[in-house]
Each structure stands twice: as C-alpha cells, then as structure tokens.
Amino acid sequence: MASLIGKVRLLASLMWGEDTRRGPLYVNVDLVSRCNNVCLGCFYHSEGASGIAAGEMPFELVTRLARELSGLGVAGVIMAGQGEPLLHPRFFDVIATFKQAGLRTQVFTNGLLLDDPTVQRIVSSGIDVLRVSLWAITGTEHERWHPGIDARMCGKRLDGFRALAKACRDPRGPEVWLQMPINRENLGGLDRRIDFVIESDAKAAGFGYYRAYGSPLDYLSLRPEDLTTVRAAFKPALARLKAAGVRHDAEVFFERVRLGLDALAVPCYAPWYACSIRVTGDVLICPRCPEPLGNLNASSLADIWRGAGYRAVRRKAMRQTSSQGGWQDCACANCCWPRENLNVQRIFRWFQPVSRWQIG
Question: Nearest 5°: phi and psi at 150?
C-alpha cells in the first residue's frame, strides 16, 4: 500500500494526463524466468501455459535499475512473476543493492529453497516482506497441484516455512506471509490450512484469488455467486486466526471474489503507478500485458516511462469502458491490480473533470 505522500503524487500524475510528472510507485522485477516447481495454477510454467525461455537478469542491470528507481522516487520493488526469485545466483546481492538504494523490497517464493542456511540469510538480508506460496497442505493435494514434483517436497516446503516463521520472530527479519490460493476445490480444506498457520506460529496469512487463465481448470475459479459460500466457510477460520493473533487479508480476498470481472469496469490506472520488468530488460505495463514498451538495454526507465509508448497506453487506459471488459491484447481476467484501480477510481473520478484529460 502506498504512503499518503505516494497517493498524493499519484493523484497529481493523473491530473497531468498522459504526460505524468512522477515515476511509478511500484515496480515488479522478474529476477529469473525459470522455476524449480510446477503449479497447475501458474500463468507461466503449468501445463497449457505459453512457456517462456529460462534466463536471469544480469546483476549489472540490477545495479543500474536500482539507481534509476531511486531517482524516479519509486516506493518499492516486488520480486515475483515468471520464476522463483531465490534461484538467482546473486539473490542476496540483489536485495542488498535495492536496499542500499532506499527501496522497500517484497519477495514472493514457492518455499522449496527454505533450508536453515537460506532462512538465516533471509533474516539478515533486509527483505521487508516475504510471501511464501502454499498450494498444497497434504500429499494428495501436492500430487494434484504439483504434477511431476516429488511428493516429499510437500513436507520439505512445510518444514521450511516453519523454520522461517520461527526465525522471523527476530525483529530484524522480514514480515512473513503464508500466501494460500483459494479455489472451489480446496475451499473445503480451509481448516487444514488454518491449522498449519497456527501450528507454525505464522504472524500473517494471505488468501489468493485463483484466477482463470484459459486452462482446463478454469471451472475452479471462484465467482461472485460463490461469495456467500466463501464467507460462511471463512467465518470460523477467521475467528481462529483472530484468537491466535494472526493478521490476514480476508476482506481483500472477499472483495476480489465479489467483483469478479466487474473489476474491469473502470479505467486501468496501472500505467500511472506500476510497471513490470522482465529478465531481458523489457518494460511492460504489468505482467499480464505482453507487449514491451521499451527495453532497459536501449533506454533508461525514465525515458520509457515518459515516452510515446507509455503515453499511448495511458490514453487507451483512460478510455476503457465497462463494455470493453479489459484490453483485448492483455490477460485482464488475471489482473494484478483490480483493488488498486478501484481505489484510485473512487478518488480520481471527482477530479477528472478538471484534469488535463479531454475524453472524446
């Protein structure tokens, strides 16, 4: 969540129209495009996904990017997307570089590399937020959601998270979230997940909205008509989390279920506050829009952010209507920013008539 100053700066940028005077608030950086796991719900590495070439971001590009992000006033870096960030051979050097540039760091991991030495390095690394994804809580679920991956990895992952949660009682450690995607199939196993959260002494639990992306598992996506069932299933679970002193983001999850594709009924404001950078240096609006707007090996991020490509995208975004249901060339059903876009819309709609926009 952006600070109050960040929100004011975002509003000022929107008032200027396509020629934003501020850099992005958040930047998603793909450190690697390979993974040591297979998840049926993965947009990149599951069966039916388009497939991507394995690679890693050169450390020289990381150091240059850190300087640029700091100069643009970026609030934080999110390391998630096409691969497992901890697979980068200089992962902890990357974290140190971003932290030295004054950037808040958030990392998403599948948890398979959380052995004791790695956990100790994480604690002292300066990572601000670490989110560990947990698709499977039992061996049966593991076989279902991680086809071809040794079933023993389920226990390894759970043990790794236990060690991480214990080590991060140290105030130097990151804020650790157990991130659990919820769908129609595993909603009935919610109690087992809450058992593990409490037993592991985790301090925060996140509930991911399982999004359809055109795979044979689309029928598992939760829909607005499921909201009553979802709330009923969560009621005792949230009472247990409260009693155990565990933070959670269930209300955000409920809102995403309630919205469904209605989240696409407002303009997309992501081109004013976020961008995504691939291992190749390609700069995208977000991970769900495949068309690069520039490459960091040829241009600075500032030039790309303020360039003709981004300006054209902002014009297109502001003219999006509910009848369009997202952009044809982007996977908007898998939008990364629905809540953020709605929050911006609630405020900016009052200022838009006096902004530089001329909607025709």
Answer: -50, 125
